[in-house]
Design goal:
With 129 residues, the protein is mostly beta strands. 0% of the residues lie in helices and 46% in strands. Strand 4 (33-39) and strand 5 form a beta hairpin.
Length: 129
């Protein structure tokens, strides 16, 4: 069983930055593909970014490309989402997710929520205009 705990959310003005963290339990974090998703009120959950176990493969949604950066520290069992140039439309609950199978299939594959077995509880990000 993998437990994921997100942190770092909050209220920020448009144009500002936040860094989200997701701490994972388990001794095999370095074998997990990790992803970030978000869900705004009244909308479906959408993909944000994914990173392979070594960090060598990264994939972003077009809506965040150039503004958000996903990274990981396997020694700390943590994945990060650095969010810059935030916009009001980035307001959502942000979730991290883990696929423990250890193989990077494709960026497109990891943009689907069914590709992940474990999910965190989410952290709220609110961007004011």
């Amino acid at each position: 069983q993998v437990q994921l705990v997100e942190s770092g959310g909050g209220l920020v003005q448009a144009g500002g930055s936040l860094r989200l963290s997701c701490a994972a339990s388990g001794r095999t974090f370095s074998s997990y593909t990790m992803g970030w998703f978000r869900q705004a009120p009244g909308k479906v959950r959408e993909f944000v970014a994914a990173i392979s176990r070594s960090g060598g493969n990264i994939y972003y949604a077009d809506s965040v490309k150039g503004r958000f950066t996903i990274s990981r520290d396997n020694a700390k069992n943590t994945v990060y989402l650095q969010m810059n140039s935030l916009k009001p439309e980035d307001t959502a609950v942000y979730f991290c997710a883990a696929d423990p199978r250890g193989t990077w299939y494709s960026g497109t594959y990891y943009s689907y929520d069914y590709s992940y077995d474990y999910w965190g509880q989410g952290t709220q990000v609110t961007v004011s205009s």
